[in-house]
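Re: [help] complex structure
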Amino acid sequence: MFFVTAVSAEIAGFPFESESQEQRFRDLSTELRCLVCQNQSLADSNAGLAQDLRTELYEQVLSNNSSDEIIRFMTERYGDFILYKPRFATKTLLLWFTPILLFIVAVFFLIRFSKFRNQSQQVQPSEEELKKVRELLKAQEQKK
Amino acid sequence: MIPELGHFTLILALAVAFVQAIIPGMGFLRRRADWMAVAKPAALLQFALVLSAYGILTYSFIVNDFSVLYAANTSNSELPLIYRISGVWGAHEGSLLLWVLILSTWTAILAMQSKKYPVDMSAGVISVLGFISIGFILFSLFTSNPFLRHFPAPVDGGDLNPLLQDPVMAIHPPMLYMGYVGFAIPFAFAIAALVQGKLDTAWARWVRPWALIAWVSLTAGITLGSWWAYYELGWGGWWFWDPVENASFMPWLTGTALIHSLAVTEKRHALRNWTVLLAIISFSLSLLGTFLVRSGVLTSVHAFASDPTRGVFILVFLGLVVGISLGLFAYRAWQLRTITPFSFVSREMALLTNSVFLLIIMLTVLLGTLYPLILEALGGGKISVGPPYFSRVFIPLMIPVVILMAIGPFIRWRQDSVSTLTKQLRLPAILAVIFASVISLLLPGKLNLTAWFALLLAFWVFNSCYTQLKLRLRNTQSLQKGLKRIPRGWYGMIIAHIGIAFTVVGIALSSVYSQEQDVHMVSGDDRTLGDYRFEFVDVERKKGPNYQADVGTIQVYKNDKQLMTLHPEKRIYNVRKNMMTEAAINTNLLRDLYVSLGEQRNTETGAWSVRLYYKPFILWIWLGGFVMILGGLIAVTDKRYRIEVKQENIKLDDKYVATS
Amino acid sequence: MSQPAENETLPQEQKPKLWVYLLPLGLFGVLMIFFFFGLGLNPRLLPSPLIGQPAPDFSLPKLSNPDETIQNVDLTGEVSLLNIWATWCTSCRQEHPVLMKIAESKEVPIHGLYYKDQPALGIEWLNNYGNPYYDNAVDMDGKVGIEWGAYGTPETFVIDQEGIIRYKHVGPISWHDWQTTLLPLINLLKNNNGV
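Output below.
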């Protein structure tokens, strides 16, 4: 989903003690993958393993384990595959930085490109284009 | 006997595709009118043959001929007729044949309209399309023959995947394929023009309606697919950044870039190589999508059963088609490079920036989709790249594109002055801030910056469209005359932009203000979401045509007044025993109430797990999609695309070789 | 229709170089290489991060006698297998004869983790089809399954003398798997004495 913000009092039949716990549960359950589904988060899945992992997640959130601790718990058992939001690490550097890099390259390219165009030519209609304009005007005249 | 006839017709179609590819192709290179003349009849014949083959396969489905292996795997005699027909494209083999059919249909339509193009150009284009057709028919015949038989025939078929037994899902694949395959035509035009070395404004005018049609179809396919996921999958999601969704979204992004870049090439003869590259990339991404979905290299909800030979075949085909075209591009575009001047503040620059950004977004989506695969191939282990990654990179990159949409149409071609522009842009921007703030305050719930900003962008686009219209009508005697004089292409653009504004509003408001509860309920329980109170009444067992259903009854109250009764279902289909949720949704322009029934949690208390959602403005997401489609369709009917070419101007000569 | 003439060309040195035009082809080539390797990978195969790690702690009731418990110390001392199974799992039924043959070969003891199922059904199953297990631990709520990083059933772990997990097999074991992968690994572990 695009943004993860919503308000509720109860998720998957789990009552929460505070709003922040609930928010944490919601965030984590959308960031963790249902491993036995092809492509669903824990929050979305009704699969048995997803339900068990949600229960695990709920208990850990309720005992106020930090999000980092919970993520470590999950990846120690299931590997990085369980994380929908890849960890920031050496092997994901390119994943996180390429979009920024592309953006910078594009802006650089566009600025350079336009400069290059401006100095190369004054922006004036060419003889060819003027001819075309005259023809078009004439054609319109004739239509009338 | 009849399925064999279908198989035979497909082989004949392959033979004709060879003729269609080679003879007009040679004619195009040697400039021989007699060889070029083969193009049209060959294209039409190939279409007729593929249509017959497809018709025969459909017939096998309709009469429940389960000696046809493919029908036995994907259909069932209990299936309603409509789903037996749509079931033909319900799995890999048939959908591939549909792909071939759509390709030959587009080719035939192009051949029928060949008066619009110089005879050599249409011969070249039809030849290129013939080569693509050869590839796909070979693919079908050698790795995925839908006419294979097995005896003795099973008593009944394995049934169509219940997920696909839905009217929207029945038309979603054809729309999507029309889009994917549609980009083959701009691609073929690009290749023909590169070979010929003639890329002019007329070329851009020929390509534009085809690019638009492909874009419209793809938009329709994606919109329907997303809408279907929303109401069918049962957890209210509508976009999952799944590899297969990305595979359709990537050509959409570059296709959008292409229709904008084509405008520059048609109007100003500029950015020709860029336009050609975008045409090649858009079709290449369609082929890439086919590879990703059908080879099994990526895990996905939608992936077809994978088969290594299929993967190898498409990979080789992909490599040949894209490799040759990009090679040709590098060589010819480099030779043909010219510079048409425009200033930094010009429409050209705005459109170029837009298409560069769309290309970057596409590359980002591509990177995220393929990163797990690349990392694993390099021995880096398994990772997942999911929605949290994509939303983080997609939204920031999309914002400049939407802003450009609000200001781009004001900028004049070639050169414009910043001061006049600022004057024109000021009012729509200020009004947008005011409107967005007012609406934000009116919305229930806490003031939210994301929602405000999205509203600001949407209103800005909307206001600028309105101001544009006013500027256009400035010097006309009467409103009616003025409205009539504006070309349809312009209306199409404005409408499509408004469609984007709708979608932006839908995405942002539904994400920010949604409320949901995932609860266990017993008879008499109730929960409140916003102003609505949902009371769980009971669940009854009912029997459908080819499934058993648990039908829940939930009463919805607003201010203690009963508003409606919702009936979410949970179905078990007889043949495949799949469990399916059918959410109950009450929709209007302002909000959706969405209820889906989970499993029975406790047989003693009768507790069911139920998901309740209140999703404001979510309909706008798809409404925006349909508005974009409308815009595209209006633009296609612009009368300048109906201009026919004077064929006598084209030099044809045996001795003259038209390259360099 | 007249075309704007191409007299707007720039001097040769200001035009983009050839490599710029070759860029898309190059990028595509790199992608193709990855696809080629990607075809050989199985997207459904998921390596376990537990390999090389000590077997996770647990203490569960025995299937044969709920008053007794099994702990992970019971898994140390010799090379052993831990097989996760349930009666609702159809591929476990398929795997069962292979487990029986492995048990007969007496190469290695098989410990069972009876996963999310009714004990009575499990006892019935073992009575009907034979019991290849040294003993069985009952994991009713699947908590220990999570500790072991289990995706489903059947899954089989090879554990060495020190109680370190050496290998994980997902899905039913075939006789072929046993002979070509599991048995050689077990023999190697036995000879190396866990080092």
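The two ends of chain A are 57 Å apart (CA to CA).
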